[in-house]
Automatic annotation (TrEMBL):
GO molecular function, one term: protein-macromolecule adaptor activity
Domain Fibrinogen C-terminal as annotated: residue spans: 12-93
BP terms from Gene Ontology: positive regulation of heterotypic cell-cell adhesion
Organism this protein belongs to: Araneus ventricosus
Gene that encodes the chain: TNXB_1
SMART domains: FBG
Superkingdom: Eukaryota
Keywords: Disulfide bond, Glycoprotein, Secreted
Subcellular location: Secreted
GO annotations of cellular component type: fibrinogen complex
Keyword Secreted: yes
Pfam entry (one): Fibrinogen_C
Stated name of the protein: Tenascin-X
Amino acid sequence: MVMFLRLHLEGSPAAKLPRDCFEVQRDLKNETGVYRIQPDYARRPIFVFCDMETDGGGWTVFQRRKDGSIDFLRQWKDYKYGFGNIGGEFWLGKSALVLVKYKLERSEDTSQINKKSDQ
């Protein structure tokens, strides 16, 4: 199971690193994988997994579960700061999620605000 959001941040265009996976894709990096981004309110860059295939790409993956190699039965602090391997199974972490100001894109089904994939 993969859970992700399409993030598009608003703010200064002068950032050296992309601010989200949408900008990673816009800068012609169309391969799904791990990228370093610098959200506007982050003190330092963070690594995220970008899905460039689902529904046009540009998705920031915040949870990825594939093979059961990571135990998701965890304490609150693990969910706050994140755990796992960003290239495998992981939870990005609440602290990383709140760094980004995002706009949830509406799909044809207006009740759907995020996507779930079995990749």
